[in-house]
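hey so u asked for the seq, here:
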Amino acid sequence: MKQPSHTTVLGKKPAWLKRRLPSGPAYEKIKAMVRSNELHTVCREAMCPNIWECYSSHTATFLIMGSKCTRNCGFCSVSHGPVDLPDPDEPCRVARAASNMGLKYVVITSVTRDDLVDGGAVFFVRTIEEIRKRICEAKVEVLIPDFQGNTRALKTVVAARPDVLNHNIETVPRLYPTVRPQANYHQSLKLLEHAKQYDPFMPTKSGLMLGLGESRDELNETLKDLRKVGCQMLTLGQYLQPTQNHLPVVRYVRPEEFEMIKSDAFKMGFTHVASGPFVRSSYHAKEFFD
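ran it, structure tokens below
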């Protein structure tokens, strides 16, 4: 099949990447609630282009264990630097905020905490437990770091029985030295494989950013690798440069190519695929799960 041509001049976003700026009473209400509970969201810290839509829909992806990361990935706008010990009261505040927002599907992610022995696994567990105490019918999806390959930490999280376990592979293996220099492609695959071994009935999910310089063949091989380790759910979105200090966009992927890749992913055996310029790991996560 012939692939679409890509003639977009980089430096000027194409029409399909234009979004309205954050505003409105619903957006301001969620923003104030997050601030008043002294919480962080990946929506804000990672400069997500969907923040207006998500906050206005009374939803957010909570970022636990602080707002600073021990890693410094080339694509990510989350702050890097000295980190404080996680706040032991944070899981309760997350659960309270989720309850006040009326959430029935809660997505929890974190900064990467290589400074902690378990990578913060116990904080994921405590947050899951507190959410379920306050919202007994809530579904909880966790987007976890690689825990540096610590299988005990992964077992700890899986034992808490999240409804979906997500770990993003982010990009193709060739680009790891520039995109994820402190991570390891095969270690991330092993995490997803082990999670499925520990709980075969728990859905696993992963995602990639496109437009960083990957080829279509490389992308297909990565998707095949994800299927080999049992990954069922997939998200694919356009990489957008957060600031001039981050990796540049190599190309803008047209919406019709995202649709072609989605079709190919279904043929490989993925049960759920979200593919489009603005798709992110937790974008419309409840609808995706349903």
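The chain has eleven helices and ten strands. The two ends are 32 Å apart (CA to CA).
lmk if thats what u needed
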